[in-house]
Amino acid sequence: MVFNSFEYALFLPLVFLIYWAIGYARIKDSLKLRMQNAFVVAASYVFYGWWDWRFLILIAFTRLCSYARGLMIEKSKIINLDSKMPKVWLWLNIIINLGILGVFKYYDFFVSEFGQLFGVNTESLLLRVILPVGISFYTFQALSYSIDVYRGNIKPTKDIIAFFAYISFFPQLVAGPIERATNLLPQFLQNRKFSYEQGVDGMRQILWGLFKKIVIADNCAVYVNQVWSDYANQSGSTLLLAAILFTFQIYGDFSGYSDIAIGTAKLFGIKLMRNFNNPYFSRDIAEFWRRWHISLTTWFRDYVYIPLGGSRVGKWKVVRNTFIIF
User: Fold this and answer.
1) How far apart are CA 186 and CA 181, in angstroms?
2) 148 φ/ψ angles, rounded to the nearest 5 degrees
3) What pLDDT, in 10s, does the model give residues 246-276?
4) CA-CA distance, 243 to 240, in Å (whole number)?
5) Residue 123 exposed, middle or buried by CB count within 10 Å (0-12, 13-18, 19+)
């Protein structure tokens, strides 16, 4: 299911009404919270499974791994502060999640390229599996949780329903922003009240996101696709115009989806981080990357670049670190 589909136009109002009907039911606050979170999980699985229900097994498996590893990391710290087991559990979770990501996203590509490079027939080795939508986003989000637990930035939650809601929250499940457990998970651990002002603001952001996606990106794509499909016979000015329109297309696609996600989350009393900050008005390329897909670039900065030494190491290691995150 995608945001600019007829199915989603029916899905969102229905989920909204049921969610807040639960929120204002005359039951205990603790039960109300668990029911709302459970409904978020169920709605998110319908949203994701609408495309291919088989991948619900995959997303559930990665969630269970990260949930269990978080508890194991914390338990190992309590038993023995000097134990190496917390790091073992952390790396096990990283290997499992990145292993799944690597198999689905890169295995066939590298096998095919290896075969072409060395003239070997690798057809029988290809898995030919469909790439699960949003697998990078929810994998990174799950990894950030276990890493933050290991670092002591957050305590592992024992509320598995809230954890599943944090990982699979449907507005940002397939297109981001990639949320941190320190920001999003606590919001699923406390009762939420509907705010009319926040709801109106969310609807405005949804409409703005749809405008970016449908009016700007999709219309630019028509011209861009025509030019790129026959680029060898196009003039330089035509190619230049297509390249310029492509910058509007890709921005409209990415930031449009992010705006819809952030606006939708506001309808449910959830605040997501800003993902784009007028990147094309940046003064240089470094500022551009600080403004473009902010949740992704900051994720790599905090969980990959800085742990590798960032810019506080020698020149060649800085170059190495930069190439690794890209």
Assistant:
1) 8
2) -65, -35
3) 999 999 999 999 999 999 999 999 999 999 9
4) 5
5) exposed
Length of the chain: 326
Decide: 90 and 73 in contact? Cβ < 8 Å: yes
Per the listing, tokens 């198999």 go with: 103
Measured on CA atoms in the order 234, 235, 236, 242, is the torsion positive or negative? negative
Query: Side chain identity at 140, as an amino acid letter?
Result: F
Please state whether the peptide bond connecting residue 186 to the residue before it is cis, i.e. omega within 30 degrees of 0. Answer: no
The CA distance from 155 to 146, in Å, is 10
- Which amino acid, one-letter code, is at 160? I
The per-residue pLDDT for range 12-65, each reduced to its tens digit, is 999 999 999 998 888 888 899 999 999 999 999 999 888 778 888 888 888 888
Contact 267, 20 (CB under 8 A): no
Q: Give the integer Cα–Cα distance in Å for 147 and 131.
A: 25
pLDDT value at 78 more than 80: no
**Contacts of the segment 249-252: beta carbons below 8 A, 24+ positions apart:** 249/216, 249/217, 249/220, 249/221, 249/224, 250/217, 251/212, 251/217, 251/276, 251/279, 251/280, 252/212, 252/213, 252/216, 252/217, 252/218, 252/220
The backbone torsions φ and ψ at residue 195, rounded to the nearest 5 degrees and listed phi first, read -115, 120
Question: How far from 253 is each of 179, 246, 293, CA to CA, in Å?
Answer: 19, 10, 12
Asked if 276 and 258 touch (Cβ cutoff 8 Å), the reply is yes
Q: Pick the range with the lowest mean pLDDT from 35-39, 52-56, 192-196, 289-293.
A: 52-56
State whether residue 191 is helix, strand or coil.
Answer: coil
Residue 180 near residue 146, CB atoms below 8 Å: no
